[in-house]
């Protein structure tokens, strides 16, 4: 099975900061990578898929990059409404299975 | 507007059975794979099971294989998850999700399943 490891597990940053979250796959996954945002008490929301494609309606301060095993989610100019836990997710066509990372909690300093 | 509405959650004793349902609307139902994702209290997201648009292919996480069965009724726009031999570790909110390629673009509100004596 593919393991997805996110880092850091949590972070605290100031409003306006640039925030970067990393997701590493245990084996190459091409660009089969999505990022979700889950605000406290709310449903997960798809932000980015295929590693770098912004889902419709998602603010442009969110961006994704990477391919193979290493991926990043970047929030340019962190806003108070971005307080949430962020998850990466991949798809393994061989089995197939879907796997989430353990999550990264983002707070405002 | 896409809508997914789960039902059927509740409190069940270990070893018991429960069937979750998900009523879908707002999209061409049979064109899309659907997935159940769960989230234990205070924990992260876990993929549980996926079914193809036709219903002919199904996939499960190892921890539920042989105990859970996913199915769909394309004539009724309904998704189901039959859960047997439930364990305490199955306690979670279960979300019905619609696929966008290999990802999940719409999520239901979730159904809470609590397995406890």
Which keywords apply here?
heterodimer; A: 109 residues; mainly beta; seven-stranded mixed beta sheet; four-stranded antiparallel beta sheet; 11 strands; 0% helix; B: 117 residues
Offer a concise description of the structure:
Chain A is mainly β and 109 residues long. Chain A is built from no helices and 11 strands.
What does this structure look like?
The complex is a heterodimer of chains A (109) and B (117). With 109 residues, chain A is mainly beta. Chain A is built from no helices and eleven strands. Helix content of chain A is 0%, strand content 54%. In chain A, the strands form two sheets. In chain A, strands 2, 4, 5, 6, 9, 10 and 11 form a seven-stranded mixed sheet that branches. Chain A has a four-stranded antiparallel sheet with strand order 1-3-8-7, with no helix packed on it. In chain A, strand 9 and strand 10 (97-100) form a beta hairpin. Chain A is globular. In chain B, the strands form two sheets. In chain B, strands 2, 4, 5, 6, 9, 10 and 11 form a seven-stranded mixed sheet that branches. Helices cover 0% and strands 54% of the residues of chain B. The mean pLDDT of chain B is 98. Chain B starts with a strand and ends with a strand. Chain A binds chain B through residues 1, 32, 34, 36, 38, 43-46, 49-50, 55, 85, 87, 89, 91, 95-103, and chain B through 35, 37, 44-47, 50, 59, 61-62, 95, 100-105, 107-110.
């Amino acid at each position: 099975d593919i393991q997805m490891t996110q880092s850091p597990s949590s972070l605290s940053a100031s409003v306006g900061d640039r925030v970067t979250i990393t997701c590493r796959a245990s084996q190459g996954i091409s660009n089969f990578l999505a990022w979700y945002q889950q605000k406290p008490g709310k449903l997960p929301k798809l932000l980015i898929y295929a590693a770098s494609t912004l889902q419709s309606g998602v603010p442009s301060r969110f961006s994704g990059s990477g391919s193979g095993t290493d991926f990043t989610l970047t929030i340019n100019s962190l806003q108070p409404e971005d307080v949430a836990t962020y998850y990466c997710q991949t798809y393994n066509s061989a089995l197939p299975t879907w796997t989430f990372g353990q999550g990264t909690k983002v707070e405002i300093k | 507007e896409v809508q997914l509405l789960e039902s059927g959650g509740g409190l069940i004793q270990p070893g018991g059975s429960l069937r979750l349902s998900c009523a879908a609307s707002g999209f061409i139902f049979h064109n899309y794979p659907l997935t159940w994702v769960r989230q234990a209290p205070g924990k992260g997201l876990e993929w549980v099971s996926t079914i193809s648009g036709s219903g002919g292919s199904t996939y499960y996480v190892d921890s539920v294989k042989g105990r859970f069965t996913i199915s769909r009724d394309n004539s009724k726009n309904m998704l189901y998850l039959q859960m047997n031999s439930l364990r305490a570790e199955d306690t979670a909110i279960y979300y019905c999700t619609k696929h966008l390629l290999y990802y999940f673009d719409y999520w239901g509100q979730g159904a809470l399943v609590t397995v406890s004596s």
